[in-house]
Amino acid sequence: MMRAALALARRSLGRTWPNPAVGCVIVRDGRVIARGRTQDGGRPHGEADAIAHATESLKGATAYVTLEPCSHLGKSPPCAEALISAGVAKVVSAMEDPYPEVNGRGHAMLKAAGIVVEVGEGAREAAEINAGFLLRVKEGRPLFHLKLATSLDGHSALGNGQSKWITGAAARADGQRLRATHDAILIGVNTAHADDPELTCRLPGLESYSPVRVVVDSKARLSPSSKLATSARATPVWLLCTAAAPKAARDALIAKGVEIVEVEADAQGSVDIAGAAQALGKRGLTSVVVEGGATIAASFLKARLVDRLSTYRAGILMGGDSRSAVGPLGLTGLDFAPRFALVSSRIVGEDTLETWRRAS
């Protein structure tokens, strides 16, 4: 039953920020009598959604939830209170919610009402599903997932800039799936100029899952006539710039519907990446796919902000005169190199997808 609740939670990824994605399954006598998940925009919560869709009375039932039920009154009533009112006899919770206004209080509220509470089943899977939410609670920033499409020797374009297409159609479609499971997708302004991308999710049936589009652009050089700017009212575009960005450039983008987010500059006058991470966290994002070019990839790696890494590798060799997928890191020794642990590897069409987690 917890596996079923975890599967429901995964279905909500990329659509619930700033709230976590929670799944809930309620059973009695071995029968599922209610199920739910956190809905778009974060409400209703998973438990409330399950209760609302119950097929019969929940009195004496057991609820399996992927995160501790909330205990505080926000924009909706506490889920712990809703479970108590519904008459459930037992709650099996995957993990405690570290959010300061919950942090054990939900479980305590349930126990005080005489409900049996068990914590820990499915904890590892639940923590991975909401890794971005947990990072935002603990560090004030979202999880950053760097996506790279490369040749076998780690290149992303020929020396003349040609890069379409290194990987095949199946890998490109899978990259669209990756977008749909994150709150936002981030690129640098150089990629915006070179490719004029839309950065939407174009898989059939998932068009509405397009995430917030974020452009790192210290001087607000994004063209008001770009595909990003001209579609900003349909799918949000946030531009991260510094105080040096001209007012006229900002105003032209604002007129198109682009949201301007000013961030501190680093020593080179560019957007400070650590500051950008905090700014995105304050705006509620929990997970961001980084799809920019070599420069933006290097920026996040140097800032030690790449938490997950997905590499789509094609069976092609491009040679040393081609462009690396990652820009210079300025390393003086291997001890300083960013390291990752392999999570999974699978074949996608004619290419290989490897997913990595930042080594602690």
Could you outline the blueprint of secondary structure elements for this entry?
Elements: H1 2-11, E1 23-28, E2 31-37, H2 46-52, E3 62-65, H3 79-86, E4 90-93, H4 105-112, E5 116-119, H5 123-129, H6 131-139, E6 143-150, E7 155-157, H7 169-180, E8 184-188, H8 189-195, E9 212-216, H9 227-230, E10 237-241, H10 247-254, E11 259-262, H11 273-282, E12 287-290, H12 294-302, E13 308-313, E14 323-324, E15 340-348, E16 351-358
Parallel strand pairs: 3-4, 4-5, 6-12, 6-13, 8-9, 8-12, 9-10, 10-11
Antiparallel strand pairs: 1-2, 1-3, 7-14, 13-16, 15-16
Helix pairs in contact: 3-4
Summarize the structure.
This protein has 360 residues and is α/β, with parallel strands linked by helices.
